[in-house]
Amino acid sequence: MLRRPGYAGEVTQSTQDYPGERLGLPQEGSGSIGHLGRRVGALFIDYGAAYLISGFFGWDPLAILALFAAIQLVFLPTLQGSPGHRLFGLRLVRLDGAWVGVWRPIIRTALLIVVIPAVIWDADHRGLHDKAAGTVLLRA
C-alpha cells in the first residue's frame, strides 16, 4: 500500500550553531556542554579506578564492571559527577539545572554499562543514556 508524501513526518535539519544552544546553554565556558574529549577522559579515569580496585578481587571482569557501576552510583548524586568527571571539569545536572537525585544515576549507569546508548548522541552531544535519565553533562 502506498503512503501519501510526508506520511512519516518530515526530516528537519538542526539549525543550532553549537551544541547546547537549543537547551539554552552557553557556547563555551562554565555551563556549556561537556565535549567528547572530556567525557572519554573521564570514562578512562573511572574505568581505570575500577580496574585497579578490582585487583583486590582477582581481576574478575564482572568485578570491574560492578565497581565501575558503584563508582557512578555513589558519586553522581553526591558530587554531581564521578571522580573522572570532576577531574576533567564536568558535572552532571538535570535539564533544569537541579540535583540529579537518586534514580537518575541508576538509569544512566545501567544504560552506560550497556555501552550502545552511550555512543549514540544527538546534536547537543547528549547520549541516549543522558536523554533517558533527563540529565546533561556540563563543564563546571
In short:
The protein has 140 residues and is mainly alpha-helical.
Overview of this protein structure:
Residues 1-22 are annotated as: Disordered. With 140 residues, the protein is mostly helical. It has one domain. It contains 6 helices and 2 strands, in the order αααβαααβ. It has helices spanning 36-54, 61-79, 83-87, 103-114, 116-119, 128-133, and strands spanning 90-94, 135-139. The protein has a two-stranded antiparallel sheet. Helix 1 (36-54) crosses helix 2 (61-79) and helix 2 (61-79) packs antiparallel against helix 4. The longest helix is centred in the first third of the chain and has 19 residues, at 36-54. It is elongated. It starts with 35 loop residues before the first helix and ends with a strand. The mean pLDDT is 89.
Strand content: 5-15%
Give the neighbour order of strands across the main sheet.
1-2
Biggest beta sheet summary: 2 strands, antiparallel
Number of helices: 6
Count of folded domains: 1
Class by alpha and beta content = mainly alpha
Helix percent reads: 40-55%
Distance between the termini: 53 Å
If you average the pLDDT, what whole number results?
Answer: 89
Would you report the number of β strands? 2
Kindly list the characteristics that best describe this protein.
about 140 residues, about 45% helix, about 5% strand, two-stranded antiparallel sheet, mainly alpha, elongated
Task: Give the secondary structure arrangement, pairings included.
Layout: H1 36-54, H2 61-79, H3 83-87, E1 90-94, H4 103-114, H5 116-119, H6 128-133, E2 135-139
Antiparallel strand pairs: 1-2
Helix pairs in contact: 1-2, 2-4
